[in-house]
Amino acid sequence: MRYMVRVLVKFKAGVADPQGRTILAALHSLGYEGVRDVRAGKLFELVVEGTDEDAVRSRVEEMCGRLLANPVLEDYEVSVLRALAGEGR
Amino acid sequence: MKFGVVVFPGSNCDADCYWVIERVLRQPVRYLWHGDGEIPDVDCVILPGGFSYGDYLRAGAIARFSPIMRAVAQFAANGGLVLGICNGFQILLEAGLLPGAMRPNDSLRFRCCPTWLKVERYDTPFTCAVPRGRTLRIPIAHFEGNYYADPQQLRQLQRERQVVFRYATRDGRVVPEANPNGSLDNIAGIVNRAGNVLGMMPHPERCAEAVLGGEDGRYVFESLIAYWQQKAGDGPR
User: Fold this and answer.
1) Which residues from B are below 8 Å from A73, CB to CB?
2) Based on the structure, what is the number of domains in chain B?
3) Among candidates A17, A67, A70 on the partner chain, residue whose Cβ is nearest the Cβ of B101
4) What CATH number did the domain enclosing B92 receive?
5) Could you list the residue range(s) of the whole structural domain that residue B84 is in?
6) Which residues of chain B make contact with A22, given a CB cutoff of 8 A?
7) Annotated catalytic sites of B, by residue?
8) Structural domains in chain A, sorted by start
9) What is the ipTM metric for this complex?
10) What is the tens place of the pLDDT at every residue in B82-117?
11) Does residue A87 have a pLDDT over 80?
12) What is the DSSP string of B158-213?
């Protein structure tokens, strides 16, 4: 089976995020004063082959720990979105 | 003393390092290719500045998996001297050979300017020839030099005295105004616990000749040679 997997990587809580801070200031300067915080991150969409959802998830979590995220700075969230129809059966 | 300078796809200070070692310090030097899995007979490996693999994802994140980095890790584990400059420092962090990580500069600007460095240790192979008390003027040129370590790592850095260079004023005061990138504790360079691997954001190879406007960078290279000669003189070769 092939699965569509979405990985969200962002700075850990407590790690200053210069991009988020600058975007926040830009939003304020546009008049969006109600915005209290912005955290910038990275989004990856992967198409991954695997026997089932759990196997795919644990494989992608391993990829996050080794490459997609830097564990010193960043947290990651893995979402297995769906099995892709008509592929790899 | 034999030097090797690693060439990654995108390295652009490799020739500067090579020049300084060969023409200024008159030592043998060779290039090491990122795709090679072995390090030939050298006494010090330099990971130069520039870029590597486009620095996609994060600076150094892809380079750390190149074949030469497995060899560099082994070389370092055996006590070999490793100097990572700028992108080379970023690669050493990503490879886990040094603790911590780099964030984009707090200004979100590429900073290219001279900095003053307070030398925190003179007992390393990279600083043993620096005159005591001298603040070094060495330029930086980077977008991701905003050093971060988690609280546990920071405590360890302090306990083990691993911070070698801090951004400072000309007279050596470590103050926020002297910090060009937001780096934690003004950290500009650190060593591993064993003391044989140094990473630094400033570029000593860019200021090793008077014609370039400064010679303070030469102290880093001269320290390596002094350390190595001392070691060679101490015991059987």
Assistant:
1) 101, 103, 148
2) 1
3) A70
4) 3.40.50.880
5) 3-234
6) 108
7) 86, 203, 205
8) 2-83 (3.30.1280.10)
9) 0.83
10) 999 999 999 999 999 999 999 999 999 999 999 999
11) no
12) HHTT-EEEEEE-TT----GGG-SS--GGGEEEEE-TTS-EEEESS-GGGSSBGGGT
